[in-house]
Amino acid sequence: MATQAYPPGGTFFDTAKRSFTAVPVNKSKDNAISTTEFLEASESLTKLFDVLGSVAFKPVASDMTGNIKKIRDRQLSSPIDSETLQDLVLNELKTKKHTATEGLVWLVRGLDFTSQALRKNLSNPSEELSTSFRDAYGNTLKPHHSFMIKPLFSAAMSATPYRKDFYAKLGDNQERVQKELGEWLSALEERVGILKEFLGRKECKY
């Protein structure tokens, strides 16, 4: 089981390199999202799967990490064209490649899955994590997964810890945990929504 890595009174969110609340969105530029900060926040989110504490979540975390790498590789190879995620996608597609764009599509699906699961659980105090995660999986990733991948992810959904154990691992001050999780989720949901709308546009098809 994962152990807490934060001092008494602290929370999981204190340990994050970056929260989604600190990922800039430029509303005057079609909700452009800063690439570097978004990738840092996404990497911090993958640590949440350590808190879930099951080896079954390894495929979920490694899938996200792999997609983050695809996006970062493109950013490093063409930094001026990749300051925002939207610029990165449109400039990559001009080169007739779509490795990073596809990575972002899958990363957004993974983030959508995580945010839906945690939002459902936070909003339903009597619901166990396994139910919340299973429902979110059906709404987000499952329709896109092959019959070989589905059992791996289904196993992860069934291996979630008990609700009370999970929230206890996020911090010993539950009032603070709930508040910070709610703020983090709202920021994540806003950015996922922006990217889903953007990636659904005709110019983003590959």
From TrEMBL:
Report the superkingdom from the record.
Eukaryota
Q: Which UniProt keywords apply?
A: Transport
Q: Fetch the Gene3D superfamilies from UniProt.
A: Glycolipid transfer protein
The positions making up the signal sequence are none
Task: Using the record's annotation, list all stretches that form the Glycolipid transfer protein domain.
Answer: 33-171
Q: Which GO terms describe its cellular component?
A: cytosol; membrane
Q: Which InterPro entries match?
A: GLTP_sf, Glycolipid_transfer_prot_dom
Please name the GO terms that the record assigns under molecular function: ceramide 1-phosphate binding; ceramide 1-phosphate transfer activity
Q: Does the keyword Kinase apply?
A: no
Protein name (record): Glycolipid transfer protein domain-containing protein
